[in-house]
Amino acid sequence: MVLEFELLCEEPLLPLAEFAPFAFPPGCVTVVVVVLVSLDGLRTEHLPILWTIVSALVVGVLVAGAAALVGADSGHAGLRAAILLVLWYGGRGVAGAIGARARSKEVIAEYAIFFAAAIAGMVWIRLAHL
């Protein structure tokens, strides 16, 4: 049974790209997913809807751009994913803290630290050629 499962998983069972009526531009899916997740997270903070939408779009574009910069090498995939997650968390947090009615410099600084750490991780990955 395990051998049969392994054989089935060697090749994609349904290559979706062949059936797509059009090709998505690179990073498009990343932007859409990050925007949706950001919208969900920011809406729980009861921010104005316009600020929520604009912030989610900005965070989506930032994370997609960072994903392109970090690359999709199979080496250190977990590290790359972790950096992108920290970048999203920091970006969404900064957007939420800035858009909040009661702005707190401490909260903005806290999320900015996550954002800066992710940027430093991206630079490290590029310089170390991981």
Task: Describe the protein.
The structure is a single chain. The protein contains six helices and no strands. It has one domain. The N and C termini lie far apart (37 Å). The longest helix has 24 residues, at 105-128. The radius of gyration is 18 Å and the shape is flat. Helix 3 crosses helix 5 (77-99) and helix 4 (49-70) runs antiparallel to helix 5. With 130 residues, the chain is an all-alpha fold.
What's this model, at a glance?
By secondary structure, this protein is mostly helical. The chain is built from 6 helices and no strands.
Average pLDDT, rounded to a whole number, is 81
Strand content: under 5%
Order of helices and strands: HHHHHH
How many runs of DSSP E, i.e. beta strands? 0
Distance between the termini: 37 Å
Helix content: over 70%
Main beta sheet: none
Supply the number of structural domains: 1
Mind telling me the C-alpha Rg? 18 Å
Unreliably modeled segments = 1-16
Q: Estimate the global geometry from the Cα principal axes.
A: flat
List the keywords.
single chain, 130 residues, mainly alpha, disordered N terminus
Element layout with pairings:
Layout: H1 2-10, H2 16-19, H3 28-43, H4 49-70, H5 77-99, H6 105-128
